[in-house]
Amino acid sequence: MGPLVPDLISNELNLILAFLFGIAFGFVLEQAGFSSSRRLTGLFYGTDFTVLRVFFTAGVTAMSGVLLLSHFGLLDMEIVYINPTFLQSAILGGVIMGLGFVIGGYCPGTSVCGAAVGKIDGMIFVLGGLVGIFSFGEAYPWVSHIYTAGSYGDLIVSQPLGITQGQFALLLIAVAVGAFAITTRIEKRANPVSESFRFPARIHRWAACGVLVLGVILALLPDRKASLLAKAADPAWQRTHPIQRISSDELAFHLMDRDPHVLPIDIRDAAAFAKMSLPDAINVQPAAMLGKEWRDTLGQDSKLKVFFARDEAGAIRAAGLAALLGYQNIAVLKGGFDEFSRTILQAPQPAEGLTQTADATARFRARAASQIAVLIKQGSGVKTERKVKKVQGGCGS
Amino acid sequence: MNPKYMNPYLAGFLLGLVLLATVFVTGRGLGASGALKSVVTSTVWAVAPQHAAAGAFYQGSHPQGESPLKEWLVFEVAGVLLGAFLSGVISRRLTFSLERPPHVKSWARVMGAFFGGALFGLGSQFGRGCTSGAALSGMAVLSAGGFITMLAIFGSAYAVAYFFRKLWI
């Protein structure tokens, strides 16, 4: 599952890949004509809409690919770098950049392309860019409050609009196709010898239909996360896919033994977990299992993974989700943590006059209560860390 | 000069695939201004280490014991330089020239490029990336901030384009 960094690709190899992806990026930008400032600024005067076409097409292509890959579970968006949203700073920065674009005729990436093919104005733009960044660095103490204001974290654009990511993709594709059609007419009027005449219109019409169909498919794709969670919670599915149940006594026996082949998985929230949990238990939020974070832990087939929550029903959902994700050797704690507390942790001292079996059980439970209490005390304060960290990225970090 | 460029939709599609591959393999998008920032911070650290140590902007960008130039984006932009050069060689577009409309004086274009670059550099710091790192890469991962920055860049450019028309048409 992607991204291949950080588990599959080392830091040094990642730098080499950066160079290779950069070559491809620069090559395509230059082939598109982005090394020419007059061509770039044509966008703002209606004479050349190349930038709009290339930019929108690239954005739609990459976005659709990201959505499809993550839908099929091939790309974990929990790990991919998502540009954080700082509202005021994003708007202010964009306004200043727009001004710089019109005055300078380039943006940083395209000025590097221009410089590479010998455009002196491109080289001077790069130089100016360095000076601009330096002045921000010098002014930082005075502007840092604007820079950090209005933080919304890794906000996905479709969330505040109240639509799904796929619906947003359809909307964006429709806007892009509409913009392509309209700007081509404007361009023909403003610049009668524009190159857009050279492209056969028929192919463009088919391509437009194609991407609109793609948009509709994206909008109709069910959210993989939501559908898996819904399936795991569906009683009918749970009936046909029963999950092994393990009793409190049996689990207590393994815990006292410190059996390395049994892994208790606490799916309650972090606060409840921190307050008290079973010895050697790890705290996993069910939704986090959809990503790469716990893949190595849950993928240990030789271990019996015992899911537990306060009651049994919550654990069954999480264990069902783990089973749906293809993990093996899964069980739930019968009666949940509540029953475990009642029967084991708070077990009374054996009373007089019990039958032989009841007496043995009561003695076992009393012994388990004291031993497990010690184990819990020893293990408390052990933090469970995320197994896979988010990728660092972006230009501002 | 060979004015024949690639079909913009095809170029956009290829650019999108490059970006998608970058995200799939490395978990991050493409960028440009971040590399310039690394050049600035490493220069300040080399020239005036005390000044750099006193400034929050330079501190945050100085990984311990590592040169700020050993950065993902620096390698990527070095690639952009080579890739664009190769494209220029293949399409025979390599020329030393100052590109400007005939009626614009050389010094005016030089000043425009310098101050435009400075503004873009400044803005890219507020925007946490430029057209590549914030707008395009942000669009690929559906970042709200990326879309906001993109709208602000192009909105502002259209709003002021009229006042600077003499520079271009």
Question: Which tags fit this structure?
Answer:
heterodimer, A: 397 residues, alpha/beta, five-stranded parallel β-sheet, two-stranded antiparallel sheet, 17 helices, 7 strands, 60% helix, B: 169 residues, mainly alpha, 67% helix, globular
What is the fold's blueprint, element by element?
The complex is a heterodimer of chains A (397) and B (169).
Chain A: H1 11-31, H2 37-45, H3 50-71, E1 85-86, H4 87-104, H5 108-116, H6 120-147, E2 151-153, H7 158-161, H8 165-190, H9 201-220, H10 224-233, H11 235-240, E3 244-246, H12 248-257, E4 262-266, H13 270-275, E5 282-283, H14 295-298, E6 304-308, H15 312-324, E7 330-333, H16 336-345, H17 356-379
Parallel strand pairs in A: 3-7, 4-5, 4-6, 6-7
Antiparallel strand pairs in A: 1-2
Helix pairs in contact in A: 1-5, 3-8, 4-6, 5-6, 8-9, 10-15, 12-17
Chain B: H1 8-26, H2 33-47, H3 49-54, H4 56-60, H5 72-90, H6 106-126, H7 131-140, H8 144-161
Helix pairs in contact in B: 2-5, 7-8
Summarize the model shown.
The complex is a heterodimer of chains A (397) and B (169). Chain A has helices at 11-31, 37-45, 50-71, 87-104, 108-116, 120-147, 158-161, 165-190, 201-220, 224-233, 235-240, 248-257, 270-275, 295-298, 312-324, 336-345, 356-379; strands at residues 85-86, 151-153, 244-246, 262-266, 282-283, 304-308, 330-333. Chain A is of the alpha/beta class and 397 residues long.
Describe the structure.
By secondary structure, chain A is of the alpha/beta class. Chain A contains 17 helices and 7 strands. The radius of gyration of chain A is 29 Å and the shape is elongated. Chain B is an all-alpha fold and 169 residues long. Chain B is globular, with a radius of gyration of 18 Å. Chain B starts with 7 loop residues before the first helix and ends in an 8-residue tail after the last helix. The mean pLDDT of chain B is 91. Classes of the chains: A alpha/beta (397), B mainly alpha (169). At the A-B interface, helix 1, helix 2, helix 3, strand 1 and helix 4 of A face helix 1, helix 2, helix 4, helix 5 and helix 6 of B.
